[in-house]
Design a protein that fits this description.
With about 150 residues, the protein is α/β, with parallel strands linked by helices. Helices cover about 40% and strands about 20% of the residues.
Length: about 150
């Protein structure tokens, strides 16, 4: 996958499709599982739905979730790196982050992701909220260093 835009009516399963794509890449071809790092950027309201969908549809033990709520000090990137690394050996590691948190912590995410091998997929939920390139959240997404596919929902 080289990125793209997935759109349909509300409630028809875009979240589930994005999770399925990431999990399929983690457990591809029956080979040993490969650790995958999925960054999900979302407004605050849909974040709880992502957590519910992960709990309901990811195989038990196949996924770890990091609910990233910012890096107020120098410990933030180290804590995130520890969660991305040790907790996700051979699993899908999903980092949930709001656009507002990204705007204040983009460097912490960039630093931790670079040390953990980078993002394998970045999902931008409610991507229509990024249409103004001058908005703070749009600039934060542009500042995110990710040489991987980006999927807008």
């Amino acid at each position: 996958m080289n990125g793209g835009l997935l759109s349909d009516e509300m409630g028809l399963g875009k979240t589930l499709v994005a999770l399925a794509a990431a999990e399929a890449a983690t457990f591809a071809d029956g080979a040993d599982p490969v650790t995958r790092h999925l960054l999900v950027l979302t407004p605050a309201a849909p974040k709880a739905e992502w957590l519910r969908q992960i709990e309901a549809h990811c195989q038990a033990g196949s996924c770890c979730v990091v609910n990233f709520e910012g890096a107020p000090d120098r410990r933030g990137p180290r804590m995130l790196l520890a969660m991305l690394g040790a907790a996700s050996e051979g699993r899908l590691c999903v980092v949930l982050c709001t656009y507002d948190t990204l705007a204040t912590s983009v460097e912490a995410l960039n630093s931790a992701a670079a040390k953990a091998g980078g993002w394998d997929l970045v999902v931008m939920d409610e991507a229509h909220s990024l249409k103004n390139p001058e908005a703070k959240r749009s600039r934060a997404v542009q500042a995110l260093r990710a040489a991987c596919p980006r999927l807008g929902l």
